Amino acid sequence: MAISPNLIWLRSFERAAHHMSFTAAAEELAITQTAVSLHVRSLEAKLGCKLFNRVARKLSLTEVGQAYAASVRRALDEIELSTTSLFGIDQKLALTVRVPISTAGLFLAHRLPAFLARNPQISVRLLSNIWAESAGRENVDVEIRLGSGHWEDAPSRCISQERIVPIVASSQIGEGTDIADWQDRPVVQILGLQDLCQKYLATLGLDLSNRSDVHSVDTTLAAVDLVAAGCGFAVVLERFATTAIDIGRPIAIAGPPLPIDQAHYLIAAPQGAGARASRVLFESWLEEVFVTWK
Fold it and tell me: Are 57 and 21 within 8 A, CB to CB?
């Protein structure tokens, strides 16, 4: 006879696996911690397999539990998404997404229409900010940050590998990518990312601190516009430079890429956000598009 676990047991297990806490799962599901624990034990008994390690009041998934949690999460999300699609679109499928302003303008906004066309049941409210610490996380379903991944307010997972490149106005670059053609031009420096510019220049034996011809802007968007207008060169993320060129900005990449230790990170959903199908689907798409952007 096929094993058919109770759907309530599966939801309790999935939420406990998400939070690594029976108490947090109970708060989200609006049931008692005892009920969640009982549901999970009943599921384990039904499957004849241990899903959690319980040591010193701390939970961790067994190897089987890890594999099963991913499958259960996908199945529950598909049920939720199918139910909403068949019986009416409601507010649950509206996502509020926060992303750095240059990531929005020079990467995500130009790929988002493809996602929305494939998923018409989902609407996206895109919010942008310059600094990750400048806004709270209230009422945000999905958040992307650019940095080193060390934020005290929320756990995160890396979804990209980044490299930097120099850019100049396409009208000012000669044949090929001869560094001598641009390194003596004014520097367009992006506040908060000065170290990346200096890191690239250091590979050429140049020192930004000795430059007097430095213009400062607060976003990569502004840096791209200044460079396109012929105001000098800037060092930006390769994915931003490539997207800007693809959408017709008159700039050119003027040197080889250099790997950096900064990346884009997907911030974990706020406590109690739940495994909404629309959010999980969007986060999965984000991870794919950030990896396969070229």
Answer: no
Question: Other CB atoms closer than 10 Å to residue 264's CB: what's the count?
Answer: 25
Backbone angles phi, psi at 152, to 5 degrees: -80, -20
The secondary structure of the chain in percent helix, strand, coil, rounded to multiples of 5, reads: 45, 20, 35
Structure tokens at 160: 């990209």
pLDDT of the residue at 1: 43
Helices 63-87 and 277-291 cross at an angle (nearest 10°) of 110
CA 286/CA 280 separation, integer angstroms: 10
CB 163 within 8 A of CB 196: no
Closest by CA to 51, choosing from 38, 69, 36, 32, is 69
What is the CB neighbour count within 10 angstroms for residue 151? Answer: 14
What is the residue-averaged pLDDT of the chain? 83
Tokens 């106005």 sit at which residue? Answer: 169
Give how far Cα 129 sits from Cα of 23, 99, 170, Å. Answer: 34, 7, 29
Cα–Cα nearest to 262, from 232, 225, 235: 235
Buried-state track 53-87, b at ≥16 Cβ within 10 A, e below 16: eeeeeebebeeebeebbeebbbebbeebbeebeee
pLDDT in tens, 230-267: 999 999 999 999 999 999 999 999 889 999 999 999 98
Instruction: Quote the tokens at residue 81.
Output: 């998404």
- Name the helix (H) or strand (E) containing 29: helix 22-29
- Pick from 187, 247, 244, 238: nearest CA to 217: 187
Annotate 173-188 with DSSP letters as a single string.
--STT-GGGTTTSPEE
Other C-beta atoms within 10 Å of 121: how many? Answer: 16
Q: Per residue in 151-197, pLDDT tens?
A: 877 788 899 999 999 999 988 776 545 666 677 788 899 988 888 88
| Gap between the Cα atoms of 115 and 233, Å rounded | 33
